TrEMBL record:
Keyword Aminoacyl-tRNA synthetase in annotation: no
Coiled coil (residue ranges): none
Pfam family, one: DUF192
The name this protein goes by in its record: DUF192 domain-containing protein
PANTHER family registered for this protein in UniProt: UPF0127 PROTEIN MJ1496
Keyword list, A-Z: Membrane, Transmembrane, Transmembrane helix
Gene3D superfamilies per the UniProt record, alphabetical: Protein of unknown function DUF192
Transmembrane portions of the chain: 14-34
Length: 159
């Protein structure tokens, strides 16, 4: 086995570094390009893009750590199958949310401007008033600004 020159050793070292860096960038690109499933819905005459929380992980995470800017014309819909009472909590939220509880395509309850939890110990679940088919989370104040009312029918593109 011959001794490698300094140039060869540097090339070997940087070759591995570059290869690992390229792999990391490719994986980061794949993660960045992952998109959650979404649906388009008209709410009060405004088109919204709602992320669909259709797995236990996305339902658990919800809109945690989202800013008001990120939620301007978006939000999240939580399909509930089978219909049942649900509980929502505001852990790790950065902004107040409007919670829109839906049953058979009608808004049965709107909780306006639900504040984020101040600490884990103050984070009590918020229960739905009745069994629901879905819950929509929107930036706080959006439901009122759009004129959403209890009893309104919504055309939901999900079951």
């Amino acid at each position: 086995m011959r001794n490698k020159s300094l140039t060869d050793r540097i090339a070997d070292t940087f070759g591995w570094s570059i290869g690992i860096s390229l792999l990391a960038m490719m994986l980061a690109g794949v993660a960045a390009n992952y998109t959650r499933p979404t649906v388009q819905i008209m709410l009060g005459g405004t088109k919204f893009t709602l992320e669909v929380a259709n797995t236990p992980a996305t339902q658990s995470r919800g809109l945690m750590k989202r800013t008001a800017r990120q939620l301007k014309t978006g939000g999240m819909i939580f399909p509930v199958e089978p219909r049942r009472n649900v509980a929502v909590w505001m852990k790790d939220m950065l902004v107040p949310l409007d919670l829109v509880f839906i049953r058979q395509g009608k808004i049965v309850k709107i909780m306006h401007q639900v504040p984020p939890c101040q600490a884990d110990f103050s984070c009590s679940p918020i229960a739905s008033p009745v069994q629901v088919d879905a819950v929509i989370e929107l930036l706080g104040g959006t439901a009122q600004n759009l004129g959403l009312k209890e009893g309104m029918k919504l055309d939901l593109p999900i079951n």
